[in-house]
Amino acid sequence: HNSPKWPNDLRQAVEKCCYVKQDFISEEEESTLLAEVEPHMKRLRYEKSHWDDAIHLYREREQRKWRDENEKVIEKIRCESFGPDAKHLTHVHILDLHKDGVIKPHIDSVRYCGDVITGLSLLSEAIMRLRHKDDRENLVVDLLMPRRSLYRLGELGRYDFLHEVLGDSESVWNGRKVPRYRRISIICRDLPKQCNMATEN
Ligand code: AKG
């Protein structure tokens, strides 16, 4: 996607606020998170999306309280991805994407999320594709998210780019087929800006 149509510095700007950190958690940390998350997930059915939904074949839940060892991991995510003054959403979003599931291009509503979306990829690697809202075909950045990596989507990349998680058939990285298995993401966000402004309205 090295299109010549990228305006000056836009690519560097988006890569600065949207990135992946490999091996962000250990195998043991992944297992400990899964041990807490899996029993809840297994009780839920995978949902097929409605016509206007961005996600296909998923199940999800929100969690506020974590076992101590997992709370430390959640803290580590927040420390990495947010500034010191961030106002965090207290609940963490757990999204279980079926191996045939996809997340279609979307921008998270400003009603539900502030400047940053950040998460861990458990169980499977996957590719996240960012597409600029004004030129979805040419201004495209792919992020490879290996198993146990952290991704951060912030600021410019969160507001001006749609993001999606590719399905198995589309997942190719530098000519290598990236098998997309079932993937669980553990996602932290900050408070929507409107929440911060609520007292002014
Ligand atoms: C979102 O929360 O807007 C996503 O697209 C989730 C991405 C993920 O599964 O990590």
Quick recap:
The chain is α+β, with helices and mostly antiparallel strands and 201 residues long. It has helices spanning 10-17, 27-42, 68-81, 155-159, 193-197, and strands at residues 18-21, 55-63, 92-106, 116-122, 126-132, 135-145, 150-154, 161-165, 172-173, 176-177, 183-189. β5 (126-132) and β6 (135-145) form a beta hairpin.
Structure description:
- The structure is a single chain.
- This protein is an alpha+beta fold and 201 residues long.
- The chain has helices spanning 10-17, 27-42, 68-81, 155-159, 193-197; strands at residues 18-21, 55-63, 92-106, 116-122, 126-132, 135-145, 150-154, 161-165, 172-173, 176-177, 183-189.
- A hairpin with a 2-residue loop joins strand 5 (126-132) and strand 6.
- The relative contact order is 0.23.
- Bound molecules: 2-oxoglutaric acid.
- 2-oxoglutaric acid (AKG) binds at residues 95, 103, 108, 117, 119, 163, 165, 185, 187.
